Amino acid sequence: MRLRLDLSYDGTDFSGWASQPTLRTVQGTLESALETALRVPRVRVVVAGRTDAGVHARGQVAHLDVEPEVLVASAGRSPDPPLAALVRRLNGILPPDVRLRRATEAPDGFDARFSAVWRRYAYRVADSPEVVDPLARRHVLAWPRPLDVDAMNAASADLLGLRDFASFCRAREGATTVRTLKELSWARDDSGVAVGRVVADAFCHNMVRALVGCLLSVGEGRRTVQWPAEVMAGRRRDQGVTVVHAHGLTLEEVGYPAGAELAAQAERARARREAVDD
Amino acid sequence: MRLRLDLSYDGTDFSGWASQPTLRTVQGTLESALETALRVPRVRVVVAGRTDAGVHARGQVAHLDVEPEVLVASAGRSPDPPLAALVRRLNGILPPDVRLRRATEAPDGFDARFSAVWRRYAYRVADSPEVVDPLARRHVLAWPRPLDVDAMNAASADLLGLRDFASFCRAREGATTVRTLKELSWARDDSGVAVGRVVADAFCHNMVRALVGCLLSVGEGRRTVQWPAEVMAGRRRDQGVTVVHAHGLTLEEVGYPAGAELAAQAERARARREAVDD
Lengths: 278, 278
Description:
CATH class of the largest domain in chain A: Alpha Beta
Largest interface: A-B, 26 and 26 residues
Structural class of chain A: alpha+beta
Helix content of chain A: 25-40%
Number of strands of chain A: 10
Strand content of chain A: 15-25%
CATH superfamily of the largest domain in chain A: Pseudouridine synthase I, catalytic domain, C-terminal subdomain
Oligomer: homodimer
Largest sheet of chain A: 10 strands, mixed
Radius of gyration of chain A: 20 Å
Order of helices and strands of chain A: EHEEHHEEEHEEEHHEH
């Protein structure tokens, strides 16, 4: 059977999602905890969004395949159903900066990475001393100058749609930089933090942070509202674009189609971008 | 002139507000940063709520007295007005877990401690794996069992008003334990975290955490809705009451009366509780 795992983590002390020898990664930490919880020698999880070092997640999704007998056996004498027992057991093993929110049986055709039809990220910026909250400092960027959110929204609107994001991506041999940016908008939350909402079918490496870096230049008035669209039209990495700090970025949610579309979407995505970042 | 300072801090790595030799405290850290920023040998601040070790603040208020010439001189060649320059300068000196949100000239008669007419605290509890957010783990208590917020509200309503809170306070020689509890209510925020809102004229030591401990027992069904009122009627420290962890507690706001009432309130409060915790 295939399990869907819904995860959150504080990315501060991780070298990103993807396992790397000798480094503390979310994948490595999770897989090792699953091996202990399920009492199996080797677990491999597949994830929707391979976040970079320092990037956080509230709505990360992963899957793993497990024998039903292994799952039942792992619950031991717990009075809870096996999946609830797994959540409890795994959270007891995981360090406090990664939490398993839910474990559910995945529907037929579900693939955490390839069935996903969109990823939603949030980038958070506190742009005045009144708004900087030390309790949120690990996931909100403190910015020393005030931002004009309206200007950032106007510039963002020009970047939407199916486009070549080469200007905002680290180039990779043989990988496309064409993506569909479904939403890019800014609003202040109740505490006054400027929150960028970014939704795309998928993202190339560094894409959100480069887009946000570009828009912060507009927000503080160093660049015109038209500039990000000009950068995009250049279709190659622009020296004027700064990739902003990772710690303001959080993967908030991953979207999947309804049942029957899961497998079809996975097939399409797998064919299209086997060697591409999400 | 008297300055009003509005402060936030992450209490995790502080041994509380009040200065203590050899320990890292918010007061010690702030006063030392002010001495550097103002270039004076000794600064003393007075605070509205002397929070315990591990307790956070978003709306802490303090005051200090400073010679106008000292303030102007400290701004140096900054193009900002002196108070804005102080905010910028002080935040550059302070560690990231304490932030100065605002510095303003205090109105006549203002005393951060004695003019205050109420203090509002929030206690935050995540009572299911779905709700536990690793990004908020420093200021939200993770509780292993689900809470019945309605039962907690019913129990809370019985504790309101002018009462003797001796059952919830660490006794102190010669100090009254009579307080006016103006509000005590529970609601879930957008993410599902149970937030207790606690407002009183002032609090004795450990009072909020003992009240919350009592109410969590009700929320998880270990105690009846009537039990907290029975404990209060006992008017002495009850062995059944657990003082919950400090890290779920945040001082959110301090209330002051309008102008002319500031000095009168300060005089009344000073007379009433010279030797009492806030």
